Amino acid sequence: MSLFEEMQQAIIDGKAPVVKELTQKALSEGIKPADIFPKAIVPAMDEVGRRMRDCEFFIPEVLIAARAARAATDILRPLLVGDAAARPAGTVVCCTVKGDLHDIGKNIVAMMLESAGFRIIDLGADVSAEKIVDAVRAHDANLVAMSALLTTTMVNMKSVIEALAAAGLREKVKVMVGGAPVTESWARSIGADGYGKDAPAAVDLARSLAAA
Amino acid sequence: MRLRLISCEIFFREMCALIARSPHTIDVEFLPKGLHDVGTAEMHARLQAAIDRIDNTPYDAILLGYGLCNNGIVGLTSRERQLVVPRAHDCITLFMGNASRYMDYFETHPGVYFTTTGWIERGGADGELSQLALGKQLGFLQTYEEMVARYGEDNARYLQEELGNLTRHYRQFTFIEMGIEPDGSFEERTRQDAAGRGWTFEKVQGDLGLLRRLLDGQWDETEFLIVPPGFQIVAKYDEGIIAAEPAG
């Protein structure tokens, strides 16, 4: 098994300490930090996404795999600053909307996006439209990913999109939405750019929106 | 009128008290509170089955003792009878008596977990339903020991932190007193639970008015959706919350 394959397996198995060790080993062997993302982390997390979609993996398996991936990205990020070859796939401002305190789903999406190579600005839970607008501006984000678990709070997604438009940022960012009560038709009705029904779908969506 | 009520058991005491005093003759079927936890599709299927198994008693309407409940009532339909449904996101509106009072409270009190007699004494997802509960399906509901065995101790500790406490952002219990409680024991239990978690406690007075108007046949369209036979419930996410459209 090659070192990249070993890393992939350790990520899929959720073995954070092993991933950390292998990342350091790769670097000491002269492998470029920018190569580790596409050759180890991204394919491993894509496989995790596939397993989740096929109901082979559930939330705990996904979480520990994402945590293992983070063991590598934590080492690699500082080394990649200023490396043009390792430009992030996009910058995503993510949060749960105003009034909604349920953030497990958002956390999983954020971790999966991070291991897919996105830069994540995680604003946490219960976030106002103003804060989202400020963060988009401050971090020059090109994606906003927001979630709601309640029908009482999902209406606040609409306010966020309106606030982005009012701030003149709507053309600059793509908006993706998710969460238990959220549907494709709801996403369309509020003018969002996409809906992710689960974390792997959110990653696919972010990729296509960032490429658009 | 002869009415058929299909209700979440969270309203057991309230509905029984109101049925006793309703001018109408009301038959009732209570469904488990655990339907809240089994996901939209399964909840919908159970509710539709409850509608479909109603016999040929000449009911004037089927009443639903439910809110939108995470879209669990979306798509419900009856071929022969009208459905009457309160315009509510969830049961808290029905306990508080109107939707705007709930929304005002919700917006000014983040992180509140509500309790009532039914919330306290009626089961969560138990028995057969517990196997269907989303938390179980998604792998949330494992003991720490199970997680250690499956994922190792290091990962289990992490998962415990991430998943162990689904209410980690909540900070208050609000007991809604409906005026049908036998004594102060339900309130006291909520107080103790709050103290145990280090949360604040508040008691608010509920309002049986909305439930009473449902059972008494006072179906003002600002408060209730009337779904004609052959129509189905759809979610609207506006002031009206729900609407009726021809069943597909």
CATH topology of the largest domain in chain A: Rossmann fold
Categorize the overall geometry of chain B.
globular
Shape field of chain A: globular
Mean pLDDT of chain B, nearest integer? 90
Strand and helix order of chain A: HHHHEHEHEHHEHEH
Number of helices of chain B: 11
Give Rg of chain A in angstroms.
17 Å
CATH superfamily of the largest domain in chain A: Cobalamin-binding domain
How many strand segments of chain B?
Answer: 10
Adjacency order of strands in the biggest sheet of chain A: 2-1-3-4-5
User: C-alpha Rg of chain B, in Å?
Assistant: 19 Å
Low-confidence blocks of residues of chain B? none
User: What is the averaged pLDDT score of chain A?
Assistant: 92
Span from first to last CA of chain A? Answer: 36 Å
Which architecture of the largest domain in chain A per CATH? 3-Layer(aba) Sandwich
Strand content of chain A: 5-15%
* Sheet of most strands of chain A: 5 strands, parallel
Strand content of chain B: 15-25%
Describe the structure.
By secondary structure, chain A is of the alpha/beta class. Chain A has two domains: 3-86, Methyltransferase, Methionine Synthase (B12-binding Domains), Chain A, domain 1 (Orthogonal Bundle), CATH 1.10.1240.10; 91-211, Rossmann fold (3-Layer(aba) Sandwich), CATH 3.40.50.280. Helix content of chain A is 58%, strand content 10%. Chain A is built from ten helices and five strands. In chain A, strands 2-1-3-4-5 form a five-stranded parallel sheet, sandwiched between helices. In chain A, strand 4 (174-178), helix 9 (184-189) and strand 5 form a beta-alpha-beta unit. In chain A, helix 1 (3-12) packs antiparallel against helix 2 and helix 5 packs across helix 10 (199-211). The radius of gyration of chain A is 17 Å and the shape is globular. By secondary structure, chain B is an alpha/beta fold. Chain B has a domain at 2-94 and 207-246. Chain B is built from eleven helices and ten strands. In chain B, helix 8 packs across helix 9. The longest helix of chain B is centred in the N-terminal third of the chain and has 13 residues, at 40-52. The mean pLDDT of chain B is 90. At the A-B interface, helix 4 and helix 7 of A face helix 4, helix 8 and helix 9 of B.
